[in-house]
Design a protein that fits this description.
The chain has 131 residues and is an alpha+beta fold. It has 4 helices and 5 strands; from the N terminus they run E-H-H-E-E-E-H-E-H. It is globular and about 45 Å long.
């Protein structure tokens, strides 16, 4: 297993998303999204195949969002490693009082709570719209 701070190529990004059961992104959309990452961490197996990744996007000052925290289904134990790497980056680079947000499936809430994340409800409620 190898951890590196790099943006994966768009083809392997799309492939990992599909393996994880997420929707497919068009090639041009994947390329643009990856190019606009503030930070990206990947985990590769010994054959250099992408088996996990996570990214941070945002304005680099006030707001950061953790996205694409994705692993192959057989590698669920890697999620905690990816979050640790992302939180280390944010701790070193984000200004004091910056807001870090993420969206999680219900099954992932416990992992994020270990890293200090709290549900925003009832103080606020997240909203989403897909175009």
């Amino acid at each position: 297993m190898n951890i590196s701070y790099e943006v994966p190529n768009y083809k392997e990004y799309i492939e990992l998303r599909m393996l994880a059961g997420l929707n497919r992104k068009e090639d041009s959309v994947a390329k643009l999204a990856l190019a606009n990452s503030l930070f990206s961490v990947v985990i590769r197996n010994d054959d250099d195949k992408l088996i996990g990744m996570g990214r941070v996007i945002g304005d680099g000052a006030c707001y950061y969002q953790i996205v694409d925290l994705t692993v192959q289904p057989s590698e669920q134990g890697l999620v905690e490693i990816l979050i640790t790497e992302i939180m280390n980056y944010l701790t070193l680079t984000a200004p004091k009082d910056a807001n870090v947000i993420l969206m999680s499936e219900l099954s992932g809430i416990g992992i994020y709570k270990k890293f200090g994340f709290e549900l925003t409800y009832p103080n606020s409620m997240s909203m989403s719209r897909t175009l």
